[in-house]
Amino acid sequence: MKEDLDLSPLKALRSLQFDVWATDWSCHFTAAPKLFSTITSPVFSELVIALARHHLPLPVMLFGVLRRVNEVRRFRLVFLLVVEVRDLYDGRRELAETLDSVTTKGHLDFLNSPPTIRIARPRYFKWDILDFD
Fold first, then answer.
1. Which structural domain range is residue 20 located in?
2. Residue 60: CATH number of its domain
3. What is the pTM of this model?
4. Which residue of 28, 42, 91, 133 has the lowest C-beta tally within 10 Å?
5. How many folded domains does the chain comprise?
């Protein structure tokens, strides 16, 4: 992510998505507070973290960064789990268990509402949304 990225011209920005499977995803989240400070859209409401099943459990560092980002700009947290159909139910269960554990430990106590889980699967190189909470 470019450090000088400015999202202020995007007046209809509702959602921002970070892909955890990026080569060095931690650098994306490290720059996130500065990026979020440039959001001026009045309709912005949602941060989506896309991940694959093999990226569970989630690193504790992620929740510290999310807390800092939320101080800059409040958001609803959405986890978009990208899985093949054969992993759909196990992947969703594992993510739900992970989020329950993280919530119990207080890592998400800065949120106004519990995180949402969405499920998607790759299909012909396009997203196919399967499930919303």
1. 15-132
2. 3.40.50
3. 0.81
4. 42
5. 1
